[in-house]
Protein: M15 family peptidase
Amino acid sequence: MASRSIKSLIPEMEKKARLVQEYCKTNGVSLLIYCTVRPLEEQAVLFRKSHDWKFIENKINKLESRGFGFLADIIKDVGPQKQIKSVTNAAPGESFHAYGEAFDAVPLLSGKPMWKYSDYKSGWDTYAKALKECDLTWGGNFQQKFKDLPHAQLCPGSNPLKLYPPEVIKAILTENGLLNGDY
Ligand SMILES: [Zn+2]
Structure:
């Protein structure tokens, strides 16, 4: 199961998550942080649900050729998934959720999550402002085919696998308990 505890985040991100919540509260918006660290298997399932086999196979080949075979294996291991609406471009390891450097949040209105921007513009705008204030990168600003409104991350980069070599990625994921079944 994905964690929704901000204590699962790295200390710098945990601190910022608290500040974002405070900022929203001060401005009259109640915010639910519903995902922090997401297990690699869960990311793999989301990834497979989001794309056709050609795209998935291409990603597997790319990961293997770049030394990330241990991530390609996770995509293979979760098996075929019924394709739905595209919800993520990120394969396992390609999301900052695996590194404790991202969270997903939604503004609440009368206790109910307002997933659609058009249903609660002022809430989403406040959330976006809070992220900017804390120097976080907002998924609503991603230059991709879909905007990831709930998503916030510490690093402006789009892909953690471009930041570190395979052995470092493997070490971080192991330390986070994502590669040894603790999640
Ligand atoms: Zn996210």
